[in-house]
Structure formats: structure tokens, C-alpha cells
Amino acid sequence: MASLIEAINQDLVKFQKAKDEIAVSSLRLLISDVKNAQIAKGGELSDAEIVEVIAKKAKRHKESIEAYGQAGRQDLVGKEQAELAVISKYLPKQLTDVEIEKIVDEVLSQTEAANLGDLGKVMGQVMAKVGGQADGGRVSEIVKGKLAR
């Protein structure tokens, strides 16, 4: 099986041939971010580390979409949404709220967490289990909801 970065590079060539400017631009920036992360690490990145880079980039796009939307810049919202759609293809399938709640319940029973003071302990374990399959903000909302009860 080809590594994730190889798949991204193959898709870049495909989009270049199709003259899809947004996809080409998005993938070039993504490859640049991966190379910067490799330089910072001082070696090759695993697929899991590349997924982390992609997740950070997707989060930045989501924040930009929200900010541009509040500023009334629909032209930039559309561009950010298109770029997000291109890079989201390389992220693992996201867990549903029900699946996240099941994992949170499991961790809560193991840690015997009782209040919001235990949030950090619970979040660390939950995020380790969900990996890149759930947004930290969403997980945090669910954990806070469960601990507040």
C-alpha cells in the first residue's frame, strides 16, 4: 500500500492534469506543511504524523471559514470550503457523537472521574483512543457535559 504522502503526490499530478487550480494549490500547500514538519522532526514522518499535520491544516481552514463568515466575506468562505474538501479526503473517517460518547463513558468508568477537575485526565485518555478521528473541541464538549452531571 502506498504511503499517505505518495497518495497525495499522485493526486497532485492527477489534479494538475485536470487543471483543478484549487486542488493543486491546496495539495501543494499541504505537501509544504508536511515537508516543514519533516524538517522540524529531522526525519521522515509516519502516516499517523502526516494525518496530524492534515488535521491541523483542516482545523485552520474551519477557523478561517468561521472568521470569514462572520466578516461577511462569502467569496473567501467558498475558497476555504473548497480547500477543506480537498484535504479532508486524507483524514480518517470521523467518529459520530454516539461513538465518542461511548469512548468517553468507557474512560470515565476506568478513571472514576467525578467532576470538571478531572477534565484533563479524561481528555488525554479519550484523545489517545480517538486519535485523528474526532475534533478535540467536540470531544471536550462531550466530556464536559458528562462530568457536569
From TrEMBL:
InterPro entries the UniProt entry points to: Asn/Gln_tRNA_amidoTrase-B-like (IPR003789), GatB_Yqey_C_2 (IPR023168), YqeY/Aim41 (IPR019004), YqeY/Aim41_N (IPR042184)
Highest taxon, organism lineage: Bacteria
GO molecular function: carbon-nitrogen ligase activity, with glutamine as amido-N-donor
Name of the molecule in the record: Glutamyl-tRNA amidotransferase
Originating species: Candidatus Curtissbacteria bacterium RIFCSPHIGHO2_01_FULL_41_13
